[in-house]
Structures are given as C-alpha cells and as structure tokens.
Design a protein that fits this description.
The longest helix is centred in the C-terminal third of the chain and has 17 residues. This protein is α/β, with parallel strands linked by helices. Helices cover 42% and strands 17% of the residues. The chain has a five-stranded parallel sheet. It contains five helices and five strands, in the order βαβαβαβαβα. α3 runs parallel beside α4. α4 links the parallel β4 and β5.
C-alpha cells in the first residue's frame, strides 16, 4: 500500500485534528498537508513540483467555498487530474449534483459518530492508496 500525499482543505481545526487522529489510530503513514481555505490551497498548489496525490475538500469554507475552489481547480491543466474527494456534513442534493458535474472523485458524508468516521476514512484512504494515480 503506497503512502499518499494528501491535501486536506478544511477550515475547522477540530475536523483537521479528527482526520489526523483517525489516520494515526489506523497506523496509516500518509502525509497530510492542511490548508484552512481555498485561497491558501491554491497558493500551495502553485508549487507544481510538490502536488498532492489526492485532495480532501470541505464545502463550507470562508473566502472561496468548496464549489468555487473546484471550479478553479478544474480549469488548470495540471491540477484538474488530482482526484478530489468532498468530505462534508452537507447532504444537500444540489451540492452533490454540482460537485459531480464539475468533476469530483467522490462525495463522502462525515458521520457524527467518531467510530463511523474512522471506518469511512480507512476505506477511503485504502481505496486511493491502491489506485494508479497520475503524477501531473
């Protein structure tokens, strides 16, 4: 199983800590970089020699929301191939449809129970660590 470079775009520090805690408890040694919002994430992604394997994206964020960020990502010829998975509490059908229309690799609802969250994260990261990924 390969080690993934993950970019987590999430403005809630509790959610960032939750993902770190989940990957640590599962003894997964993926490298997780965090951006607090879409603007910071875009700045990080300008460093084209150090792109993430996958992006985990929250939808509800200040400055640039998740959907706006996605649109910007998909207009870039190198960044548009990075699998982007929405990790959100929003089960709004309009958001879901819009995200798939723009081009996402997955839409995962954050469960309330921590055990369920860990289980989902384990399956999600396991799936992507077995995938053949493009290094743009």
């Amino acid at each position: 199983m390969k080690t993934l470079n993950i970019l987590l775009i999430e403005d809630d520090i509790i959610e960032v800590m939750k993902l770190q805690r989940a990957t640590a408890s599962l003894q997964l040694h993926h490298k997780i970089k965090e951006a607090n919002n879409g603007e910071d994430a875009l700045k990080m992604l300008e460093q084209k020699d150090n792109l993430p394997d996958i992006i985990l994206l929250d939808l509800n964020m200040p400055k640039i929301n998740g959907i706006e960020f996605l649109k910007l990502l998909k207009t870039d010829d190198r960044l548009k191939y990075i699998p982007t998975i929405i990790l959100t509490t929003s089960n709004n059908q309009r958001d879901l449809l819009e995200c798939y229309k723009i081009g996402i690799a997955g839409y995962v609802l954050k469960p309330l129970k921590y055990e369920d969250y860990v289980s989902k994260i384990e399956k999600l990261l396991s799936y992507w660590s077995f995938n053949e990924l493009i290094t743009a």
